[in-house]
């Protein structure tokens, strides 16, 4: 009697784990398709010029919101570029597209691929109409930022350069 319950429990656990595995593979396939569509879109082709420009800088933050993508540098501090979707004639992105863009940027910007250097965080943006939107930000980790700033300070204060 007890062996039958144990066997039934094991079978149920196996079925549940297979269902979770299949669900995860389906979710992953949808995510990869969304990333492929994002990379092939006309909007991303226009944004790519700004991505190439941003690669020249030590990036402090990259903000991905439904209506804009903003790049901020450490040195010189401040915004180095904003891609406004409405200015380019594009519609605002939905939550799935915002997430796909955050993943594609991680693949196309070499700096973002290191978890030691940058952290991806999701946050909420409240719009004037009260609607809450998901947004993502890549932020330079403090250790990496301190190392970059110290390296830049050494270059700027080198007595042989003056």
Topology:
Elements: H1 2-39, H2 42-54, E1 59-64, E2 68-73, E3 78-84, H3 95-108, E4 118-126, E5 132-140, H4 142-156
Antiparallel strand pairs: 1-2, 1-5, 2-3, 4-5
Task: Please summarize what this structure is.
This protein has 162 residues and is of the alpha+beta class. Helix content is 49%, strand content 23%.
What would the keywords be for this entry?
single chain, alpha+beta, 49% helix, extended
Task: Provide structural commentary.
Helix 1 (2-39) packs across helix 3. The chain has helices at 2-39, 42-54, 95-108, 142-156; strands at 59-64, 68-73, 78-84, 118-126, 132-140. It is an alpha+beta fold and 162 residues long. A hairpin with a 5-residue loop joins strand 4 and strand 5 (132-140). It is 49% helix and 23% strand. The chain has four helices and five strands; from the N terminus they run ααβββαββα. It is extended. 14% of the residues are buried. A five-stranded antiparallel sheet has the order 3-2-1-5-4. The N and C termini lie far apart (88 Å).
Secondary structure: helix percent: 40-55%
Distance between the termini: 88 Å
Number of strands: 5
Q: List low-pLDDT spans.
A: none
Number of helices: 4
Characterize the biggest β-sheet. 5 strands, antiparallel
CA-based shape: extended
Strand content: 15-25%
Work out the radius of gyration. Answer: 22 Å
Strand order, largest beta sheet: 3-2-1-5-4
- Give, in order, the helices and strands: HHEEEHEEH
Structural class: alpha+beta
Mean of pLDDT: 86
């Amino acid at each position: 009697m007890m062996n039958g319950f144990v066997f039934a429990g094991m079978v149920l656990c196996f079925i549940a784990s297979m269902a979770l595995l299949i669900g995860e593979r389906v979710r992953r396939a949808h995510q990869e398709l969304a990333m492929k569509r994002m990379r092939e879109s006309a909007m991303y082709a226009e944004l790519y010029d700004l991505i190439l420009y941003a690669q020249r800088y030590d990036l402090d933050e990259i903000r991905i919101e439904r209506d804009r993508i903003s790049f901020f540098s450490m040195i010189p501090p401040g915004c180095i570029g904003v891609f406004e979707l409405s200015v380019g004639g594009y519609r605002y992105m939905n939550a799935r597209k915002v997430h796909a863009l955050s993943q594609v940027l991680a693949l196309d910007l070499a700096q973002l691929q290191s978890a030691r250097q940058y952290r991806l965080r999701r946050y909420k943006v409240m719009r004037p109409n009260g609607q809450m939107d998901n947004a993502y930000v890549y932020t330079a980790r403090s250790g990496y930022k301190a190392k970059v700033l110290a390296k830049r300070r050494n270059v700027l204060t080198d007595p042989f350069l003056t």
